[in-house]
Write the structure tokens for this entry.
Amino acid sequence: MTDWNAMSDAEFRKEVRQFFEAEYPEELRHLPHRPKFAEIEHWHRKLHAKGWVAPAWPAEFGGMGLNAAKLLIFYEEQQRWGVNRGRDMGVQMVGPLIIKFGTREQKDYWLPRILSCEDIWCQGYSEPGAGSDLANLRTRAEIDGDDFVINGQKIWTTMAHDATHIFMLVRTDPDAPKKQQGISFLLAPMDQPGVDVRTITTLSGETEFCEVFFDNARTPRENLVGELNKGWTMAKALLSFERIFIGSPSLAQNALGQLESFARGRGAFDDPVFRDRFAQAALDVEDHAALYARFADQLKRGETLGADVSMLKIWVTECFQRITELMIEAAGPDGGTIGPLQVGNVSVDVLSSFYKARPTTIYGGSNEIQRNILSKAVLGLPG
Amino acid sequence: MTQTDILSSEQEDLRLLRESARTLFERAGGSDRARKLRDAGGGFDAEMVRELAEAGVFGVAVPEDQGGLGMGLAAGGVIAEEVGRVIAPEPVVLTIGLSLGLLRRLCPDHPKMAQLIGGEISLAVAWQERGPGGAPADATCRYADGKLTGGKAWVVGATGSQGFLVVAEQDEGPVLVLTEADADGLVIDKRTQADGSSSGELSFSGTPAAELARGDAVQAALEEAVVDTTALAAAELVGLSGRAIEITLDYIKTREQFDKPIGSFQVIQHRAVDLNVMCEVAQAGVRAALAQMDSETDPKVRTPIASRAKARAVTAAKKITRDAIQLHGAVGYTDEFDIGLYLNRALVLSAWLGDDTYHRRIWFEAREAEGAAQ
């Protein structure tokens, strides 16, 4: 088995880059939407054969066992080449939880099925009354014989209509003294009576999100991961790395590149006002990269990230939005037109990048929530 | 030693430098000292200049074989940030970036080098001129037969300097000359700046001066020194911005309205966070720019990097100091609270050597030129 961490950063980057460039299908590069599994299945099989489905998992569970520094490189190369993350909820979220908190049986059963995509997972955290305020969730799971019986509703469940299983936070003790207590982490099959999935069409016309309704749906008791009523602390324990990932410069960098070629084709740079606003946006991205590097260095030194990493997400997502707004401005009268616009020999879908930028300030904890975190944990402002 | 070890020992040197500069300024009285000096009519503290020199501050970016510490602009930036934190009026950035920047490139053996590094003197640099409408104009100040005629504008550090390094014209092209502050035929018109410092308008009528260097080298050295100073001014703005936020946070944590500290209101918290994020981005961007400049020699590459730094620092400092006043409420508008000193200093540093719009243009044009060349 290869010890990737023993390679130099440059060697490792080269290896990853070569694989992506040689093997990733051209037509799937920079996909504008979240693909259904069937669309990327072929690529997934290749990754699986290579043993590269789960870069962060320890090698004993079939992962690459990458340390933080190598992991950042892996993701950077993935984003640089426009490699779709595929259906990675299993790998990114439920897998690490099972690895950390699951029983031997749970590990043996679920982990290989995640890697092979035999099971395709979706995440059931948010509810209509519990988005950023997750502790407010109301979906109930009650023990009945050998099963949990689930009742309630989840929302913003990404790609639930293309999933076989859902991992969810559910309330198992409604009488717990604090809202954060009495919540458990549960795995459940989707294919059963009592689970109803309804897709939600987004502003851009895509169906990425779903609502999932549970009406006396059942899941065996052995599908409880970790201790009963301890789901909240478990779910929170795994957020640290995701928080630098969500603040990475890639989305904004790609959009800036698109803006530049589009605006050039449209002659927008003849306007000094546009030039200044483009320069502002470009420098916003460049200086964000300097800040990002500071946090990445922290990870590379083996330190854990503090709450201050939230500032990356705030800055880069808002910057991404400004860039996509400039794209619309540069399009002039075409700024409201759906579909690709041909400019010279490039074709740019102005609205698709605009829409893509909208949820970035909402998901992963809205930017307002990130600001609340920073004000308390970093600036020490009073409650 | 691996690459990482070398990097971290450099980081460690910079950290120690930062600590000693901070201690020195805090012991001297922090930002209270800035207020006292301003109220005493501007200028700076010669004793402080000597103490800074003892700590190696002025020679920090001068190569070791020229009597400096050879630590580069990144180290200069560390000191500039500390100067900004306490808005020290001493000519630190001016000396590191401009006067020593010129001399070390043009006449490193001149005795004034050692005197500047040793904090025995300070020299202001007179290189810009004002056109009839008040805007910057091409150089017309002339030097011939050992004498200067004409005038110079926006001379920072004109008050308190023992002499002037003047970039003038002569028949063979540009020339760098040295004139004493009390030279015959030199009139200094002091224009008071927002922070209480003065910007000197100089006029020369047959003022005696000594030639230091001549020819194209003067123009090249001037441009490079100005670029260095631009980046250092950005670092000073970053230090100033960081401290302005700290002062504001202290204030909103204690100031009560409606029986609560105003810092507990979400709208105030979010604004404070935005200022903090802006400041962190500026700090990271400016520090990265200075480090990049240290590893680059080509002026075509270094110039836009310095512009990137100044554009970022000015944008951040403007927003931070203005919002800091707002967050202080009415007292922020009074001279009794320190936050106003920071706003005023930011105004002066932002205007000096080009504001953010100007530097974005320089940066963008360099980017275009590079794109066209490829």
